[in-house]
């Protein structure tokens, strides 16, 4: 099939590449010429395990190409995926200008039947807006060309995006026209040879499913974070509680890890957007989600509070920071808890040397050349003359460090672990002061 993917970010690039991998002819469009240049030169603009090799293989096979030429992109695909960003507006609702801009381009330039598939995370009702935007452009041209609008939310996880796309748990397709449903079934057939994973819904239900999924996961995290803070005061160990409840099949183990808050490009923005949709479009206050967000905002400062409780005034203190990205296996710094922590430390007059396997470049772009934030080439290199070690991302390489070396290198043998990586008894037994979350 001929497919166009509009937006070549985390979702668009992974989707386009995986669709090419199964034999489709895919053209990826982006408005950012720098991204397209990197891709055309055989690089990739993001860090995502396994993606670069897959991009190269499919480009070499002639099934995957990149462009900034909107007209070429619209003419190419019968299926037009919209995978552009939907960042939060000032009031928290999703900003649809990029989605609707992409839709208008399609309406302005299409000359034959198109299935326009919304893969961006968008509020309920966006499908209808996309349909109207295309209709409006066609009316301006005084032409009548058939098209369908489909909602196909993406559930991939950064860091495991290729695997998630190639072996999805489920594929949700919100579509109401037979021809579009047939095409979407054929498109996704190669990804579900073992058993049917396609869930066909109406457009609005598909749109809401994506928000419901992220809101549920964010709720589990905030719930555990609150219980962790309680466990700490009561003298219980949240890790034991986690295992005690996770073993109940009605609850399960996933997404019950307490920590220093969730971040990333999806949970914070999607929780905000769902709250805003409910308020603005239905006059309903989502009380649970409002609390989920509040709890998360507070949790991003939990390490700062612990630091102040241990050291008092942080002015002139220097800290080693392990992990910057919002989670392991990605360089994505959007809403990363590390950003809040670094800002807190700066505000308190402290300085930081950070190490992250892939996100230092992106962090430098965000913080600029601020002398208060230095970078180390390896984890141990961050520890020199630091008053304590702080951990905010659970990269595998932090899981089993040389505790003796940590103890010897730090000015004070103190670890603040925002991801509960270590056994408190073991670490404390080595003579290291260990502050974790809820333990
Ligand atoms: N990142 C994730 O893990 C993830 C997972 C599921 C869903 N989503 C959703 O997918 C959407 C995209 O997310 P992302 O993380 O890939 O965003 P991103 O910011 O990485 O990529 C978006 C890309 O779209 C491009 N773009 C914007 N307007 C354009 C236009 N008119 N034409 C062509 N290109 C245009 C931008 O230049 C950018 O490269 C969002 O709605 C997001 O919520 C993201």
TrEMBL record:
* UniProt-recorded Gene Ontology molecular function terms: NAD binding; UDP-glucose 6-dehydrogenase activity
Pathway, per UniProt?
Nucleotide-sugar biosynthesis; UDP-alpha-D-glucuronate biosynthesis; UDP-alpha-D-glucuronate from UDP-alpha-D-glucose: step 1/1
Q: Which UniProt keywords apply?
A: NAD, Oxidoreductase
Which SUPFAM superfamilies does this one have?
6-phosphogluconate dehydrogenase C-terminal domain-like, NAD(P)-binding Rossmann-fold domains, UDP-glucose/GDP-mannose dehydrogenase C-terminal domain
Q: Could you tell me which InterPro entries the record lists for this protein?
A: 6-PGluconate_DH-like_C_sf (IPR008927), NAD(P)-bd_dom_sf (IPR036291), UDP-Glc/GDP-Man (IPR017476), UDP-Glc/GDP-Man_DH_C (IPR014027), UDP-Glc/GDP-Man_DH_C_sf (IPR036220), UDP-Glc/GDP-Man_DH_dimer (IPR014026), UDP-Glc/GDP-Man_DH_N (IPR001732), UDPglc_DH_bac (IPR028357)
Recorded hits in Pfam families, A to Z, give: UDPG_MGDP_dh (PF00984), UDPG_MGDP_dh_C (PF03720), UDPG_MGDP_dh_N (PF03721)
EC number(s) per entry: 1.1.1.22
What region holds the UDP-glucose/GDP-mannose dehydrogenase C-terminal domain? 320-424
What does the entry list as the binding residues for NAD(+)? 30, 35, 86, 121, 158, 269, 334
Enumerate the catalysed reactions. UDP-alpha-D-glucose + 2 NAD(+) + H2O = UDP-alpha-D-glucuronate + 2 NADH + 3 H(+)
Name one process (GO BP) from the record. UDP-glucuronate biosynthetic process
What is annotated as the active site?
266 (nucleophile)
- Which major enzyme category is it? oxidoreductase
The entry's substrate-binding residues are 155-158, 210, 255-259, 263, 327
Q: Which family does it belong to?
A: Belongs to the UDP-glucose/GDP-mannose dehydrogenase family.
What is the protein name stated in its UniProt record? UDP-glucose 6-dehydrogenase
């Amino acid at each position: 099939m001929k497919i166009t993917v509009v937006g070549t970010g985390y979702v668009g690039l992974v989707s386009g590449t995986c669709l090419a991998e199964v034999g489709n002819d895919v053209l990826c469009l982006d408005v950012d010429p720098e991204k397209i240049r990197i891709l055309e030169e055989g690089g990739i603009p993001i860090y995502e395990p396994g993606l670069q090799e897959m991009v190269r293989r499919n480009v070499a096979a002639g099934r995957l190409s990149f462009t900034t030429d909107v007209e070429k992109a619209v003419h190419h695909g019968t299926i037009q995926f919209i995978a552009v960003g939907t960042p939060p507006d000032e009031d928290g609702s999703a900003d649809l200008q990029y989605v609707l801009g992409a839709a208008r381009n399609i309406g302005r330039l299409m000359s034959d039947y198109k299935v326009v598939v919304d893969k961006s995370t968008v509020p309920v009702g966006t499908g209808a807006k996309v349909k109207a935007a295309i209709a409006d452009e066609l009316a301006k041209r005084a032409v009548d060309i058939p098209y369908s609008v489909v909602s196909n939310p993406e559930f991939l996880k950064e860091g495991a995006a290729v695997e998630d796309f190639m072996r999805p748990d489920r594929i949700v397709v919100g579509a109401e026209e037979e021809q579009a449903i047939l095409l979407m079934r054929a498109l996704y057939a190669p990804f579900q040879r073992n058993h049917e994973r396609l869930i066909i819904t109406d457009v609005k239900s598909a749109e809401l499913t994506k928000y419901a999924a992220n809101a549920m996961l964010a709720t589990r995290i905030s719930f555990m974070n609150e219980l962790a803070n309680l466990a700490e005061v009561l003298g219980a160990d949240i890790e034991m509680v986690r295992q005690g409840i996770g073993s109940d099949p009605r609850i399960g183990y996933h997404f019950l890890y307490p920590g220093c808050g969730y971040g990333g490009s999806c949970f914070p923005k999607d929780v905000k957007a769902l709250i805003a949709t409910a308020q603005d479009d239905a006059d309903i206050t989502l009380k649970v989600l409002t609390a989920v967000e509040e709890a998360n905002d507070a949790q991003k400062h939990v390490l700062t509070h612990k630091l102040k409780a241990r050291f008092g005034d942080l002015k002139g203190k220097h800290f080693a920071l392990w992990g910057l990205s919002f989670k392991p296996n990605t360089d994505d710094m959007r809403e990363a808890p590390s950003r809040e922590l670094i800002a807190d430390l700066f505000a308190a007059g402290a300085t930081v040397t950070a190490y992250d396997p892939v996100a230092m470049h992106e962090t430098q772009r965000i913080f600029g050349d601020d002398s208060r934030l230095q970078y180390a080439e390896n984890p141990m290199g961050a520890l020199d003359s630091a008053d304590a070690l702080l951990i905010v991302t659970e990269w595998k390489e932090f899981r089993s460090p040389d505790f003796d070396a940590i103890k010897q290198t730090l000015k004070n043998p103190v670890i603040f672990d925002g991801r509960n990586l270590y056994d408190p008894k073991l670490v404390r037994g080595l003579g290291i002061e260990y502050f974790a979350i809820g333990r």
